[in-house]
Amino acid sequence: MSSHTPHYVTLYFSLISPFTYLGDANFNRLCDTYNIVVTYKPLHLMELFAQTGGIPPKQRHINRQNYRLIDIKRSALSNNIPINTIPQYWPYDFSIADRMVIAAIKQGYKVRDFISMVLAGCWVHQHNMADKEVLVQYANEAKLPGDSLLKQIENQDIRDIYRHNQEEAVKLSIFGAPTYVYKDEIFWGQDKLSQLEEMIQTGREAICI
Q: Dihedrals φ, ψ of 91, to 5°?
């Protein structure tokens, strides 16, 4: 299939997710290689967990917590991605950054660079990504109007979109982040990007329940 043919992928994610960070560079590579047009859908990951039977990491059994850290480190090593498995500022109020992304999208700005910067800010540079001044600086560096976006995060329309993204995800049988949706087929986790790529390459029909 021609790489010039546009492909449309919806990404359901949260900026607190280490697995969204681990998939970020590879997903962006796929986007550039296959002319993927992305619809970004930030959602409140902890509330999604609550709705779909998931448990926040710190509330899981210690065996699950330990394996999660192993899985994060192993994924980073195998893809040569730098990461701090337990960043200094984690967990943090990720909803601020998530809603800044929504505000930017609503105004027609491109958010890819900002998303990448915030993810790396937490998992590599160990910055406090709930610090509004830090987020404004990151947004400005990504050529977004940081102060303006920050002022909009409490607007009801932004909160409504944030909630709607989550409700939409639940209806689509999504339960975690990152989840990539292509032609109604869902791919949960950065480790499924190779399967997404295979689907794009072969043009096979979507697998849906």
A: -75, 165
